Structures are given as structure tokens and as C-alpha cells.
Amino acid sequence: MPGHMQAAVLEAPSKIAIREVPVPEPAASDLLVRVAAVGLCGTDIHIFRGEGNYNLDPLGRVIPLEEQPQILGHEFCGQVVDLGSRVKGFQAGDRVMLDQGLSCYSFGRNPVCEYCQTGDSHQCLYYQEHGITGLQGAMAEYVAIPAVNAVRLPRHLSFLEAAMSEPLACILHSTEMLEKTSARYTFDGPRRIRSILICGSGPAGLLFTQYLRNVRRFDGQVIVADTQEKKLALAGRFGATTVNVSQQPLIETIRELTNGERVECLIDACGSSQLFEQVPWLLRKQGTFLLYGHGHRGKDIGILNLVQFLEPTLISPVGASGGFSPEGKPLTYSRAVETISDGKVNVRSMITHSYPSLDWVQRALTEDYREPGYVKGVVELLKES
């Protein structure tokens, strides 16, 4: 193995440098993986722009990028090139996608914490996350990660598509929380959810739409609202009724589509603080409000006053938590890989920008994501023949 590798290092807000850094040394239970493809996530953009930093010291102090630069990238897959001495069940050349979150199972803890016991792996008491909490992410040529976090990929599934497994796994976890937590209106109970409004037609909104239609087989209204016509066109292809809020007033349109009743379920997939001002006129009383988008800024918390009067069920899912196989494998990620592999969710049509090297990351996070036609960017570091 080479002693050094290239990595896109975030040295300060909005400043990435391509550096030579040491190749990580795999521990006894680790795989060393050659990164094949890494998705560019909205969280990457927030961290890149200095709007979020989840690298904290033991006292909860944010560690500035200038003090500890970060290598981002948490949606990734690749090829095994080396194995730790205690790893079984893998060999060099295996194609894998990775759960970037380290839980009790990743650390080999016994007994596991109460959150890992209940399958809430991304709330683990000892949780760390590659590309998010300061651990080296996948915007580099190699990553060392516990073998238990790896899910083997079907041969026919491309690396480009497999990189979308992590965001889809987050949608699986969010939908499961929606099904378990919704109080008054449910998918299968006496008071059924008839209309779902998804605000945002980015990757999350499009994955929610496809999962609800093709996997959950929801046959009610799925309404997707956004300002970008090209993204809305994709949502329409996936079975949604679309609303371009730059041309149609959202509140009035929702009233018309629901015969004045409003929606039983509202999914925030855009992270816009302005949405909170509209919630009281979009969501039915005692409906469910799923907070998937993050980064709400610019609004006083007092706007929640009218939302609270609805007595809503508020759900705030994070990551791709899920149970574990008897071997400690992350089941949510395995299901996400299967769902994409089986063609139930079309991720390739969502990948609008593919980049051939890490040199493009700065431009992608600075300029490209603002383009009207941009939905999802993926960096391909290992081309398949």
C-alpha cells in the first residue's frame, strides 16, 4: 500500500485544499477500503459553508476548522484492499458500501448501550461518524472502517448507484419513525393518512416520494412543493402531484387539493425556516410534522407558537438508525442496498452531476449545487469497466 493518498481537506469555511495525507492504518477489526464513489450531501454543504460543525471536544465545544481541518464525505462505497488481522468474511476486491456511523457494534463493546440494544444505532452513547464528527470521511482515496459496518454489494449494482444507499437508508429510518410515532392519523389505522405534503424536491424529497409510492405502496396523495421546475418534473415522474411555489401559492393550492382539510402528514425536506410560518395552514390538527431538513435559520422560535396549537406529532429523525443482524451488520443499510438493487427506487435519474476527481469538490460545493438542474452530485474515484 502507498504511504500517502490524496484527500480534499476542508481547512476553513468554503476553503478546500487537495493534500497528500497518510493512508489510514486498518485496526485488527477494520477494512481498508479504496473509495469508489462518494455522494455530496446537504450536510456537507452546511459544514463547508461554516453553517454547521459537528466536531466537538468532550465538553461540547465546537472545534474550528482552522484548528482541526476535516475530510468530509459520509455517503460512500468502495473496494476492499486490505483487512485487519481479526476480519473474517471479506477479502481483497470485495465491493462494499459502508455505514459511516460507529456504534457499540463497531467498537466491539459488550454489553452494548441501551440505544444499540433497541436498534437506534445512530443515537449510540459512544457514537462517532466518518465525515461528520471529525473522523476522516470519504473525500479521500482510502478509508479504514470496522468490517461490521460494511455491506457487500451485488455485482450488477454500480458504485455510482450504491453511493446513494446512505441517503436512502436515512429515508427508510425516517419512514419507520413516521409509521411508529404518528398519533392520530396513521397509514393503516381507522383514521388514515390521505395526503402527504413533502416540501422540497431535492434528493430527500425525491427519495421519500419513491419510497412511499414504490415500497410503502401509499395510494393517497403525495404532494411535492418546490421552486425548481426540473426537480419537480422528476417528482411528477415518481408519482407526485407537484406545486411550483414560485408560481402557485402553497397554502391556497393545498386547500384546493385537500378540499379544505389540509394534509395529515407534512415532511420538511428543504430545511427552510419560512415553512414554519405556513405549517398552521398546511397541516391538519393533530397531524404529523416530520422534520427531516436541517439548517433552519433566520426565524424567531416564536413562530412555533401557532404550530403548537395544532397539537401535532413532531418527529425529528436523524441518520439511518436501524437494527442489527446477528453478526452486528446494519440492517437499514442492507435494506437500502436491496431496494436500489431491485429497482424499486431509481437513484440514477437523480444523479445530475458526476465528478471524475476530488479536484472538483470545491466547485461542486461552491457553485454547482446552486444550478437549477442540480439534484445530486457524486464524485467517482474508481471507474468500473
How are the elements arranged and paired?
Layout (H helix, E strand, L loop, with lengths): L3 E9 L2 E8 L7 E11 L1 H7 L26 E9 L11 E4 L2 E2 L1 H4 L6 H4 L10 E2 L12 E5 L3 E3 L6 H4 L2 H17 L13 E5 L3 H13 L5 E6 L2 H9 L3 E4 L5 H8 L5 E6 L5 H5 L4 E9 L12 H5 L4 E3 L15 H11 L9 E5 L5 H6 L9 E5 L5
Parallel strand pairs: 10-11, 10-13, 11-12, 13-14, 14-15, 16-17
Antiparallel strand pairs: 1-2, 3-4, 3-8, 3-17, 4-5, 5-9, 6-7
Helix pairs in contact: 5-6, 5-11
What does this structure look like?
The structure is a single chain. The chain is an alpha/beta fold. The chain folds into two domains: 4-164 and 347-380, Medium-chain alcohol dehydrogenases, catalytic domain (Quinone Oxidoreductase, Chain A, domain 1, Alpha-Beta Complex); 170-315, 3-Layer(aba) Sandwich (Rossmann fold), CATH 3.40.50.720. Helices cover 24% and strands 25% of the residues. The protein contains twelve helices and 17 strands. Strands 3, 4, 5, 8, 9, 16 and 17 form a seven-stranded mixed sheet that branches. Helix 9 links the parallel strand 13 and strand 14. Helix 5 packs across helix 6 and helix 5 crosses helix 11 (331-341). It is globular. The chain starts with a strand and ends in a 5-residue tail after the last strand. The relative contact order is 0.16.
